[in-house]
Amino acid sequence: MGGSNRKPKPQTYQTFFEYLLSPNGIVEIPIVTLEQAVTPLIPLLPNIRTYVRLAKDKCNNPSDGLTPNESASIMLYTMGWQPYDQCLYMVLNRTIRSKNCAKLQPWLLYLKLFLTALTRLPSNQMTVYRENNFDLGQQYELNEKFVWWDFALCSVSSEQISLAETKTRFSINCRSVKNIHKHTYFPSDSSVLILPGTKFQVVERIQQTDDINLITLQEIQSSFLLTTQTFHKKSQTLFQKYCLPKSRSNRLFSMRKPSSASVTFRQVTLRELINAFDDDWINLSEQNINDRDMKFVVQKTIANKRYKRVRLANNHITAQGALTLGKSLQNNNTLQFLDLRNNSIGDLGMQILLPQIIRSNLKILKLESNGITSEGAQYLAELVRCNRTLTELYLSQNRLGDVGVELLTNALNEDKRAHADHDNKDVAPKPSTLQHLYLGDNDITDIGIGYLANMLKSNRTLTWLWLSNNQITNPGLQILSSVLINDNFTLQWLFLNSNKGIDDGSLDTFASLFKYNLSLKTIYLYDCNLSDAVKQTLHRLTRYKRDFDLEV
C-alpha cells in the first residue's frame, strides 16, 4: 500500500493518463469478459486465472446493476494473495507510479472493464479511513492541496483497518468515493475506493501521543474519470484543469505483513481450489504455496488420504514445508504420485522427507530443480535401496555431480545390494523397483558415467535413463556403450541430448551400439556436437532397426 515520497511535477502523470484516455488507450477498445481482460496480464500475474474463477463464482447476481464481469473486476482488485507484492492491486498501482506508458499496454482491457464498473457505481459523500505503517506526517503540510493518482482502497470503519505498526492514520472526508463493499469477496469487507485524480486539501494534522500522525483530508475536486465525457475528451484539457503544482503520488500502498484477514482469504482460496478437484488427483502447481500454507494444504490433500496424485510444482516450499509434508506421509498408503518440481527443498528437506517416503506406497516422485547436491543424494540412495514401490524418480536440474551419482548407483547395483551390510533392520533390501531415472543437467562427467555403467551390469529393472545436458564426452559414451552391448539387455530408452562433448568421434561407438544392442528402442542425440554428415550416417545405420527411434 505504498508509493513514492517524491512530489511529482504537474506533468509527470500527464502523459501516462493521456495515453490511457486516448484512442490508443481504452477509449475505443471493447468491453470483454474478465477472463479475456486478464489474458495479457498472465505473464505479470501467473496465478491470476485462479482468482478470476473465484471472483466470477461469487458474482452471478451482482448488485448495483453491474454485470457479472464488471462486479468480478472490482472483486479481483480487492483480492490479496501471496506473494503479497504480486497481487493485482499492488502491481497495477506500481505500474501507475512508474508513469511508463509501455507498461500500461497489457492492462488496457482490464482497466476498460474496471473503470466502466466503477463509473457505474453511485458516488458517495462519507468519511473514510486509511492507515499506513510509514511516518508521512512531514509530507502533508496544513492547507496543502494535492492529487492522489492510485486506486486507493479505504474503509468506512477505522476499527477494521488497524495495523500493528501504524505510523500514519488518514481520516478522509470524501464526496465522490465509490462504495464497493457489495463487490468484495468477504461480506464483512467494508471497502471503499477513491479514484485516481481525486484532489484533496489537508485540513488538520495532529501528532498523537502514541506517535501516530493523524491527518484529516477534505476532497475538493472529484476525479476527472467521473466526467461522463472523460473517455472522449482531449486529455490535455483534462490535465490542465486538474493537475496542480503540488500534486503528489501517495504512499497508501506500502508493503506490510499479511493480516489475519489475508491469511483467512488465502485459506479460503486454497480450499475452493482444492474442492474443485473431484477425482483422486489434484494440481496445486504455480499457486505460490509456501511453508506457511503447507499445513493447510497437507491437511486437505494428503492427511485425509483421499488423493492418489498430488502436484505441488513451481511453488515456494522449503525444508520447513517438507517437514510438514513428511509428517502427513506417515501411514499414508493412498498417495502414489508426488510432484515437487521447482521448489527449494534442498538437502535438508531430503533428510527430513525421504525417510517417510521409504515407507510409503509412492510410485512416482518428481524432485527436479530443488537444489539437491551430493549431500542429499545419500538420502535418495537410501530411498531407492529400501522403498518397495517407487518406479520413477525425477532428479534433473539439481547438483548431484559424480559423487551423488556414485551414491545412487551403489544403491541400484544389484550385486552391491545383495552383499551390503544393511543398517536398517526394519526394511530388508529387495531387488530395486525403479524403472525410470532422470538425471539431466546434474554436472555428470565421464566419471559419473562409469558409475552408471557399472550399475547397469547388474541392474535388470531400469528401462529409462535420462542423461541430457551433462558433461558426457566420447570416452564416457564408449564406456556406457560397452555395457549396453555386453552386459545390459533391459534398458530401452536412453537420452543423451545436449551433451556437447559428444562429437563426430563417437560415430564408431554408435555404429557398434546400433548393431549389437537389441534392447534399446529410443536414443536422443539432438543438440550434441554432431555434424550433419554424421547425423545422416547414424540415420542410415538405424534405418532397418525395427521399432527403433533415433532423434538426432
Automatic annotation (TrEMBL):
The Gene Ontology biological process terms listed for this entry are: nucleocytoplasmic transport
| Source organism superkingdom | Eukaryota
Query: Keyword NAD on this protein?
Result: yes
Q: Does the keyword Metal-binding apply?
A: no
The reaction(s) annotated as catalysed by this protein in its Swiss-Prot or TrEMBL entry are: L-arginyl-[protein] + NAD(+) = N(omega)-(ADP-D-ribosyl)-L-arginyl-[protein] + nicotinamide + H(+)
Q: What is its EC number?
A: 2.4.2.31
Please tell me one Gene Ontology term that the record gives under cellular component: nucleus
Q: Name one GO molecular function term.
A: small GTPase binding
Q: Which UniProt keywords apply?
A: Glycosyltransferase, GTPase activation, Leucine-rich repeat, NAD, NADP, Nucleotidyltransferase, Repeat, Transferase
Matching entries from Pfam families are given as:
ART, LRR_6
Give the family, as the similarity comment puts it. Answer: Belongs to the Arg-specific ADP-ribosyltransferase family.
Give the matching PANTHER family.
RAN GTPASE-ACTIVATING PROTEIN 1
Please identify the protein, giving its name as recorded.
NAD(P)(+)--arginine ADP-ribosyltransferase
Q: Specify the species.
A: Adineta ricciae
